[in-house]
Automatic annotation (TrEMBL):
Keyword Lyase annotated: no
Name of one Pfam family that matches: Lsm_interact
GO molecular function annotation: RNA binding
RRM domain: residues covered: 38-115
Highest rank taxon of the organism: Eukaryota
Species per Swiss-Prot/TrEMBL record: Holothuria leucospilota
Official protein name in the record: Squamous cell carcinoma antigen recognized by T-cells 3
Stretches for region Disordered: 110-211
Length: 211
């Protein structure tokens, strides 16, 4: 009588077990946790969809083994269902014929049942941590905020540089000086005395005769 519907709500029945100090045995999951090609997973169902409606829809493609509507513990449907056929051929036909069918304004999705594996128990995860399993190192890409800096972020605005500003700035001539130098024409250098032509002995003799 476990999970039998009573006035629209599932009735859950479990075996009474005397609680002991020792760790209770884990309860095995009732359904398979692997791919079942003869079982279909139906999603995007309206909550008003009933088990009889699904039997009528999928029963035209072959012999049904079981139809199960997934509900919360309160009995409210989740909009999911499992339809199990007697063989894989009928299940394949049902996928082609029912996938995308509109039921109550919802286009249902039909696929082969392949549930994901259940999460690793907490006890096993703690044991793995105690054994000292090393995590792979994270290689951060170069930050976009600073050139050549690796890490989750570059240099922030609040981080001050210890280098004096006088060394950071390049010496650039002031605009006034540049304008002044640009406005002045280059002065012609007067020829120095050393640049004058040298006098010969005849020139010296003429200069003494004149005097």
């Amino acid at each position: 009588m476990d999970r039998e519907a009573v006035e629209g709500r599932p009735m859950y029945i479990d075996r009474y077990v005397v609680k002991e100090k020792q760790k209770p045995a884990t309860k095995d999951f009732k359904y398979e946790m692997k791919m079942e090609k003869n079982k279909l997973f139906v999603s995007n169902l309206p909550r008003s969809a009933t088990k009889e409606e699904l039997k009528k829809l999928f029963g035209q493609y072959g012999q049904l083994k079981e139809v199960r509507v997934v509900t919360y513990r309160s009995g409210v449907p989740k909009g999911l269902a499992y339809v199990e056929f007697e063989n894989e051929v009928d299940a394949s036909k049902a996928i082609i014929g029912t996938d995308g069918t509109n039921i109550g304004g919802h286009n249902i999705c039909v696929a082969i049942s392949n549930p994901p594996s259940r999460k690793q128990p907490i006890s096993e995860r703690k044991e793995n941590e105690k054994e000292g399993e090393s995590k792979p190192a994270i290689n951060y890409p170069k930050s976009l905020g600073a050139k050549g800096v690796s890490g989750p972020r570059g240099k922030g605005r609040t981080q001050l540089s210890m280098m004096p500003r006088s060394l950071q700035r390049n010496t650039v001539p002031q605009p006034k000086e540049m304008g002044a130098t640009a406005g002045k024409e280059p002065q012609q250098q007067s020829p120095s005395e050393g640049d004058k032509p040298k006098m010969s002995n005849a020139d010296f003799a003429k200069m003494f005769l004149k005097s």
